[in-house]
Design brief:
Blueprint: E1 2-5, E2 8-9, H1 15-18, H2 26-40, E3 42-50, E4 56-62, E5 67-71, E6 78-83, E7 86-88, E8 93-97, H3 114-132, E9 138-141, H4 148-163, E10 175-178, H5 189-203, H6 224-249, E11 257-259, H7 270-282, H8 288-294
Antiparallel strand pairs: 1-2, 1-11, 3-4, 3-8, 5-6, 6-7, 9-10
Length: 315
Amino acid sequence: MVAHSGMTRIRPTPPVLLRPDPREPYRVTIEKIVNQLTRHGACWFRIFNTGADGWPLAIRVIDRPRVAWQLSSTSDEVTDVWIDGVETDLRTVRYIPFRSDPGPPGTSPLQDVFDVLEQLVAVYEYQADYYGSPAPPYALKHPQRQTAGQADAFMTQWEAARELRRPAFLSGGVELEQYNPVSAADALLLDEVNYLDAVAARVMLIPPSLLNVQAHSSLTYATTLDELRRWLTLTLMPQYLARIEAAFSDLLPRGQSATFDTSALLRMDFASRIATYAQSISAGIHSVAEIRALEGLPAVPAAAPEPVSANVEGL
């Protein structure tokens, strides 16, 4: 994340945005926040350090089961918070909700599809049981009807021969009839798994196609970039990033806001970037130096002046 004041980027980036929890990498902290949102419907974090100006320098994500709270009797406002059973100063605690529903903070999206997830687990368990120890793809056919005792005795001999890896010996008109076992596709198990996977992905606000799951949709995308741009615009930004940005903006002085840099997510291929940069330079929007900085390239060194011979007199 970076900080802005209006359209102006603030440098250096405030420590609470650069590395929110100094004990761990930035990526780990953001991952913890997202995991708390999806698992518990809310992420609680605590301010652990402030600067000389009183603004936070560091935060620490608190696992939801460790937090208890009390709401106001007249509103949905949190009035008291306990962490590990110890009452905590409300001014040092913040929470990010997955949704803005009235009531206690936090409703996990997984609760909405609990039945679907149970069905998905049941389908996977059935597949593992059925295809993990499949029945032999053949049957032994006798020309005469056999009693249960005769059939059991014959099968016992057959299984004993198979365990000893002895060749089969068929007599008395017994035939070995082979058949093709039912595949997962024929049993519609794959369709069921794909459907349930797609439902779970949508509840988590992730396009199924990004998880390599059949989307059961007529939407198509010209490029992966188009798909990522649509995901960023319709779900990732409003549901996840905007909520995290709002929470961290509250930790900055008035007039400053925290924003995620999503340029890497929508980064075009090299040829497309060069073409766009050329148009930007022609329009006077960027300079060559700025373009090189965007690409992570060093600045072009200034040309050294031509040396003047000591024997040349000035005119």
